[in-house]
Amino acid sequence: MNDERISTAGRQLRMGMIGGGPGAFIGNVHRMAARLDGGIALMCGAFSSSATRSRAAGRELYLPADRVYGSWEAMIEREAARPPGERIDFISIVTPNHLHFPPAKAALEAGFHVISDKPMTLDAEQAAELVALVERTGLIFGLTHNYTGYPMVKQARAMVAGGAFGKIRRVLVEYPQGWFSHRLEDTDHKQASWRSDPAKSGAAGAIGDIGTHAENLASYITGKRVTSLLAETNTFVPGRRLDDDASVMLRFEDGVKGLLFCTQIAAGEENALRVRVYGETGGLDWQQMEPNTLRVTRHEGPATILRTNVGDLDPMAKAAARIPAGHPEGFIEAFANIYCGIAQAIRAYHGEETPDEGLLDYPDVYDGLAGMRFIEAVVRSSADGNVWVDL
């Protein structure tokens, strides 16, 4: 491993990207998020498993030909060999699920920090290996559970942690989509093709794709990990090889109980992620399609509406807001908050910047391990006849 700490003072962080080539939705989201605050520059990439497609993506992104690679292996090897003044600082991994772990492991072993799309790996064993590698190297590892980057989600977390609702009792989290209501995998739809393939997506379909977002959001806001669950997964579309729907009963730490519902066959739904948390004296309700609003309820008293960048909000919520109240902030900005926090952590790793604590609560390698354990527990619970499974 190259453990030389290259100076980051007075310059943009240099990013390399693996995946995100032609036809990939999430790659461009990551690139927009990375450059939003001006502190990160895309320097190189291996954008596709096809060298031809990777070169085409590089041309579209105006990268020099010698920084566009035909494979992620070549990219990591050649970037690690570059002089310190040219070498990238971190690698962003935006591939299908089966190609998260191998380049993440290789990047860490080569001395590069990593940002990875979720789920972190194909299974919990791989996730545990990455945890051990991060602990051994001390390198920064961030995971883009982007919904934690919304200002009002951070406000919700702060209110729960501050005891605004007393002891938390119940969590309800749902994520209905409708885009997969028919067999898109039989067409040329790239996203549908790999998401329905167990070799590329892993052991779960909807649970791995959006169920992990729901689980992570519930754990983030409550500050509690899931300790056990009972699940039923369904495959409604005939011939589909992975689940497209799931219902899960959850037990969290400290006696908190929860329900999680996710589906990709709710015809007509968009991305209707919603979380509700109830305690002894009140509760909260946040919906991703109206992200600037947090509804707060009280046992005896009227409901209150909190808005992004309005009034006396928690410092974490303020740090995550970029523009004056009333101007919509959404998906890209939430992603960018995670990139911004990880970038600050990388600069702090090099000893050259004191990070803003309000942005340092980005999802990390431990969240990735928790997500994989959640996926495997859901699959096991459903397969064994809907039984309780400890994580």
Structural commentary:
There is one protein chain. By secondary structure, the protein is α/β, with parallel strands linked by helices. The protein contains 12 helices and 14 strands. Helix 1 crosses helix 11 (331-349), helix 4 runs parallel beside helix 5 (124-137) and helix 9 packs across helix 12.
Structure summarized in a few sentences:
By secondary structure, the protein is α/β, with parallel strands linked by helices. The protein contains twelve helices and 14 strands. β3, α4 and β4 (113-116) form a beta-alpha-beta unit.
Query: How many DSSP E strands?
Result: 14
Give the low-pLDDT segments.
none
> SSE order in H/E notation?
EHEHHEHEHEHEHHHEEEEEEEHHHE
Biggest sheet: strand arrangement:
13-12-11-10-6-9-8-7-14
C-alpha termini separation: 33 Å
Described by strand count, sense and barrel closure, the largest sheet is: 9 strands, mixed
Task: Count every helix, treating DSSP H or I runs of 4 or more residues as helices.
Answer: 12
Classify the oligomer: single chain
Strand content: 15-25%
Classify the helix fraction into a percent range: 25-40%
State mean pLDDT (0 to 100 scale): 95
Indicate the structural class. Answer: alpha/beta
Radius of gyration: 21 Å
**Shape category:** globular
